[in-house]
Amino acid sequence: MKNLHIIEHPLIRHKLAKLRDEATPMQEFRRLLDDIGLLMTYEVTRELQTVSVEVRTPVGTASCSRLERVPVLVTILRAGIGMLGSFMQMLPESPVGFLGLQRDEETLQPESYYSKIPFVARTSPVILIDPMLATGGSASDAIEHLRKNGVEEITFVCLVAAPEGVRAINERYPDLQIYTAALDDRLNEHGYIVPGLGDAGDRVFGTGADDIR
Ligand code: PRP
Ligand code: URA
């Protein structure tokens, strides 16, 4: 599949096996998502451009590199919050944006309910984070929103991708790079990734968190 980077690492595979397990409780799910996110940052940021700098150490001058442009992190609510902390930990200088998207359970179309993107995103590389790439509708909406606001460089990061979602992004955005920890088999009739891990938002924050009854 085009522009798809499956991050292969024994620790990621080990932790993903635990995270997928239906018996894994919310508290552990959060911790595992955070751990995997941390491991993924290493590969996701590999292509970031650097510039040379001279640094005075206590005993001399070292030729070093630093990031040319610090990336902006943009996360898709809700489940994206579960992976955001790990990226913020590794990129503490990164501004952070939020896009609220909710998939309609019948049509599977995302509906936008919130958007707050830092102004600097226009000139910076953007790392867009959402653990699940299913039909690709939410990721496409998010990318479209960022592009309309002038963002040029976008990398999409997820935890689990379905082939349907990867194809949809490839077709619509042929140059966009996708990083994932796993490429699963397919979508089921409800638009869930099989075998997947279930509803990522519910597993991070609790089932039915939008119903106050
Ligand atoms: C989930 C997930 C993605 C989206 C993926 O969010 O976090 O944003 O579904 O599906 P798609 O590729 O078919 O668009 P959901 O809409 O369930 O919202 P939530 O995170 O608030 O639960
Ligand atoms: N969203 C989820 O949270 N899980 C899926 O399997 C598909 C979409």
Topology of helices and strands:
Elements: E1 4-6, H1 10-20, H2 26-44, E2 50-57, E3 60-67, E4 72-77, H3 81-90, E5 96-103, E6 110-116, E7 126-129, E8 132-133, H4 137-148, E9 154-157, E10 160-161, H5 163-172, E11 177-180, E12 182-183, E13 186-187, E14 193-194, H6 200-205
Parallel strand pairs: 1-11, 4-5, 4-7, 7-9, 8-10, 9-11, 10-12
Antiparallel strand pairs: 2-3, 5-6, 13-14
Helix pairs in contact: 1-2, 2-3
The chain binds 1-O-pyrophosphono-5-O-phosphono-alpha-D-ribofuranose and uracil.
Give a quick rundown of the structure.
The protein has 213 residues and is of the alpha/beta class.
Textual characterization of the structure:
The longest helix is centred in the N-terminal third of the chain and has 19 residues, at 26-44. The protein has one domain (4-45, 70-205): Rossmann fold (3-Layer(aba) Sandwich), CATH 3.40.50. By secondary structure, the chain is of the alpha/beta class. The protein has six helices and 14 strands. The N and C termini lie far apart (44 Å). The chain is globular. Helices cover 32% and strands 29% of the residues. Strand 13 (186-187) and strand 14 (193-194) form a beta hairpin. The model has no long low-confidence stretch (mean pLDDT 95). The strands form four sheets. A seven-stranded mixed β-sheet has the order 1-11-9-7-4-5-6, sandwiched between helices. Bound molecules: 1-O-pyrophosphono-5-O-phosphono-alpha-D-ribofuranose (PRP) and uracil.
